[in-house]
């Protein structure tokens, strides 16, 4: 079931947070299921992130959440952080440790959304709320914040069709490099992309890439090239930028000098540079500061019993395989191409022009007016 979209309300929630605080109306009672309404600023937020292969988690999510929690709690709140390195068992152990340490609330970005459900239940039984962050974990979670994942796939699919032009048709063979089968987001990205691509092009090969690893995507792509032929691949759907990097390596190894359009997601620096150089067509830019700051706001509001603020931050609703009508915030996304690098990742302070336009890419940057 597709979640209800109230993106405009969700985006406006950040402003609402501060206006409500200024009016002094945030001391609402707790809903009784988790946080104490009398909890002060000395909160401990448990943060469980899934892996380090995608640079966003270490570079953006963790530091932004840590900084936001500090600002919301007069620097008295802290973040207890652990990264699972794509190991579901390791993450379960980390979560159990946070439960044992009696953190006030847990932000959980699950390695395996199904396998972690038992630990979510344990946290709930211990009176510790769990907010699913970026990936929709199963079990009795209290809320969910992520990007509109099906929209991500739709944007990627539409971008591939745009790149192929008005003459695109079923004669055009597409390779799909989907994400990890243990990540529910990957299924939504894939569904969104297929809603745009099905019937308009031919999906010649499709892979669910174990653990999102670039080397696995590279091996899959090498197999696809061998089977389809390097000259017969019109475009490549890659669910994220890390895998796009592996795909480019496979194309290089096969002697492809003029790569077909390749999608991505996450606006990693290496991907932005590949876009500048024409090696990757696009990435999906997701405002990590917006997602991470809203997650910190949700966590602090929940643990302090500020129900009005919490409700303002969770105007959407989603279903997981185990729970229905989960309060959520779904953040919208943008297709990042050569044309809008300045107005997205540079304007938002994610990268400086100097970060992107190193000596290797200076000529390519100059060619698209990026100086």
In terms of topology, how is this protein built?
Elements (H helix, E strand, L loop, with lengths): L6 H17 L20 E6 L6 H17 L5 E6 L4 H13 L4 E4 L8 H9 L4 E4 L9 E5 L1 H16 L8 E6 L5 H14 L4 E7 L5 H15 L6 E4 L2 H13 L15 H9 L5 E3 L2 H16 L3 H7 L2 E3 L7 E6 L2 E3 L5 H5 L6 H4 L5 H6 L4
Parallel strand pairs: 1-2, 1-3, 3-4, 4-5, 5-11, 6-7, 6-8
Antiparallel strand pairs: 9-12, 10-11
Helix pairs in contact: 1-11, 2-10, 3-4, 5-6, 7-8, 10-11
Task: Walk me through what this model shows.
By secondary structure, the protein is of the alpha/beta class. The protein contains 14 helices and 12 strands. It has a 7-stranded mixed beta sheet with strand order 2-1-3-4-5-11-10, sandwiched between helices. A 3-stranded parallel beta sheet has the order 7-6-8, sandwiched between helices. Strands 9-12 form a two-stranded antiparallel ribbon. Strand 3, helix 4 and strand 4 form a beta-alpha-beta unit. Helix 2 crosses helix 10 and helix 5 runs parallel beside helix 6. The N terminus is likely disordered.
């Amino acid at each position: 079931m597709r979640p209800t979209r109230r993106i405009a309300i969700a985006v406006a929630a950040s402003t609402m947070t501060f206006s409500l605080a200024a009016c002094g109306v945030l001391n609402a009672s707790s809903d009784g299921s988790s946080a104490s309404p009398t909890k002060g600023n000395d909160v401990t937020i448990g943060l469980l992130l899934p892996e380090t292969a995608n640079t966003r988690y270490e570079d953006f999510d963790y530091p932004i959440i840590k900084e936001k929690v500090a600002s919301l709690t007069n620097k008295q709140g802290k973040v207890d952080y652990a990264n699972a390195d794509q190991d579901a068992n390791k993450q379960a152990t980390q979560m159990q440790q946070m439960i044992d340490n009696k953190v006030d609330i847990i932000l959980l970005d699950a390695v395996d959304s199904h396998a972690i459900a038992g630990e979510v239940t344990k946290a709930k039984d211990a009176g510790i709320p769990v907010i699913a962050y970026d990936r929709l974990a199963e079990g009795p979670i209290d809320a969910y914040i992520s990007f509109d994942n099906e929209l991500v796939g739709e944007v990627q699919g539409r971008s591939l069709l745009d790149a192929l032009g008005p003459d695109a048709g079923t004669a055009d063979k597409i390779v799909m490099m989907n994400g990890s089968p243990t990540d529910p987001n990957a299924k939504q990205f894939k569904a969104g992309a297929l809603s745009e691509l099905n019937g308009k092009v031919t999906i010649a090969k499709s892979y669910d890439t174990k653990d999102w690893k670039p080397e696995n995507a590279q091996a899959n792509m090498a197999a696809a090239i061998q089977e389809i032929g390097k000259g017969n691949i019109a475009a490549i759907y890659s669910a994220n930028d890390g895998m796009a990097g592996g795909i480019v390596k496979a194309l290089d190894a096969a002697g492809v000098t003029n790569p077909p359009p390749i999608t991505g997601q996450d606006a990693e620096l290496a991907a932005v540079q590949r876009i500048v150089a024409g090696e990757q067509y696009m990435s999906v830019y997701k405002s990590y500061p917006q997602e991470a700051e809203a997650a910190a706001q949700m966590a602090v509001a929940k643990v302090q019993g500020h129900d009005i603020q919490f409700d303002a931050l969770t105007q959407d609703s989603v279903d997981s395989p185990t729970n229905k009508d989960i309060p959520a915030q779904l953040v919208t996304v943008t297709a990042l191409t050569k044309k809008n690098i300045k107005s997205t990742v540079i304007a938002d302070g994610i990268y400086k022009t100097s970060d992107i336009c190193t000596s290797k890419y200076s000529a390519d940057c100059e060619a698209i007016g990026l100086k």
